[in-house]
Specification:
binds S-adenosyl-L-homocysteine, Archaeosine Trna-guanine Transglycosylase, Chain: A, domain 4, globular, about 400 residues, Transcription Regulator spoIIAA, Rossmann fold, alpha/beta
């Protein structure tokens, strides 16, 4: 059993917690001195020492932990996690029933009642991602609850926190059950993806873009020349090609993107002849495209929110306008730009402002066709909408 501590809330924040805000912020508490061990269960009390809520202490860049319950008598044990997991699985009933999609998120942190951990489903296998030492300290209970709630072929995990030299014995991503084949083939709306559960931080596809990929394939790609920048394993290019794109060009700086993108095309039976895969800094590629007077009917931009390469650092917040201006210039009149960002530090309104500014600076008109946030399986807590980081806008260049 984890140890338990009491922390006193500043009076300004009591109501916020009572209303269902799930994050335990640094500013909520005056005196943190009781909190010495991550993974401690925290009882949050008001100034008169009345119980308000309980949670756990775990350091993430977001905050100091997460609220788990507002009931004083609710014990944080395996049964507690089982209730949360059962509800999360029920919420994804339609996903489990859909034979055309076998990769999706089954547990999305605080959106499903336990911040700091996500679980993704890949065709019978489950991938746990732990975001703090605190939640990792509670993982035996969570894992046990999970094993009691679902049938699984195998379980993998990623640690997305600084281990500070701890946990040296479990550097392997495999946890239990059977090991998954590498690659593991999954389906998404009928298309195939090759997934590697034990090959670094990323597994081959970002599940949160599922609805965007489907829209590209079903509504926009037919007959188009498509440029996919920051293409990673080329998932947007694959869906564009499946939707009948005339050609696709995928550009990513990482050397591994070439064989990985070829593999994704191959397992979807797409002829590689009209699919260009370029390993290069996109900013150099833009210069090349302008020099060669290349123009595309559709351009996808999905940069990391922050990246450092040898030549430059890119920050979505600071550089998105500049990036858009480059893209607008190599997009045909009447063409579509799909601008995406997963940066959590600015809102959709700010993002729409970036789009506005880029077009205004170039004196070109545009029309917003549609936009996307996180899909249904990436459940967001009602009182914590700021965790809906995904912003995707389909723009027509006029
Ligand atoms: N759009 C992708 C995910 C992009 S992840 C998808 O939907 O699957 C971000 C990618 O940007 C990484 O693969 C990284 O290698 C690449 N990247 C980062 N900086 C880059 C740069 N300057 N030029 C090209 N690619 C870059």
């Amino acid at each position: 059993m984890p140890n338990e501590i009491n922390l006193i809330l500043k009076s300004d924040f009591v109501q916020k917690i009572k209303n269902g805000y799930p994050l335990l912020s640094r500013e909520f508490i005056e005196d943190w001195s009781e909190a010495t061990e991550e993974g401690s269960i925290v009882n949050l009390l008001d100034q008169k020492k009345n119980f308000v809520a309980k949670g756990y202490y775990g350091l993430q860049n977001k905050g100091q932990g997460w609220i788990l319950s507002q009931q004083a008598d609710e014990v944080i044990d395996t049964d507690f996690f089982k209730r949360k997991i059962k509800a999360a699985l029920a919420y994804r009933k339609d996903f489990f029933a859909d034979v055309k999609t076998t990769a999706f998120r089954v547990f999305n942190g605080e959106g499903d009642g336990v911040g700091g951990v996500t679980v993704d489903y890949f065709n019978g296998y489950y991938l746990f991602t732990w975001y703090s030492i605190g939640i990792y300290e509670l993982k035996e209970m969570f894992l046990e609850a999970f094993k009691q709630s679902v049938d699984f072929k195998g379980i993998y995990q990623k640690k997305r926190f600084d281990t500070k030299g701890m946990y040296l014995n479990d550097n392997n991503d495999f946890v239990c059950g059977n090991e998954a084949p590498a690659p593991l083939h999954v389906k998404e709306n009928g298309a195939n993806f090759a997934i590697y559960l034990d090959d670094g931080a990323m597994v081959g596809v970002f599940l949160d873009q599922r609805d965007v990929r489907k829209t590209i394939r079903d509504k926009y790609a037919k007959g188009k020349t498509v440029l996919n920048t920051f293409s990673y394993t080329g998932a947007f290019s694959v869906f564009a090609a499946l939707g009948g794109a005339k050609s696709t060009t995928s550009v990513d700086l990482a050397k591994r993107s070439l064989p990985k993108t070829q593999e994704q095309f191959r397992i979807n039976n797409i002829d590689l002849e009209n699919q260009n895969i370029i390993v290069e800094d996109v900013f150099l590629y833009f210069k090349y495209a302008v020099r060669k007077k290349l123009l595309f009917d559709m351009v996808v931009i999905d940069p990391p929110s922050f990246a450092r390469s040898k030549k430059r650092t890119f920050s979505a917040n600071r550089d998105y306008v500049k990036l858009l201006k480059e893209v607008i210039q190599i997009t045909n009149k009447g063409g579509t730009i799909i601008a995406s960002t997963n940066a959590a530090n600015f809102s959709m309104m700010t993002f729409r402002g970036f789009i506005d500014k880029a077009f205004r600076d170039l004196k070109i008109k545009f029309q917003v066709l549609e936009s996307y946030a996180l899909p249904k399986d990436f459940r967001v807590a009602e009182k914590f909408q700021e965790s809906n980081y995904l912003k995707v806008v389909f723009i027509k260049k006029l």
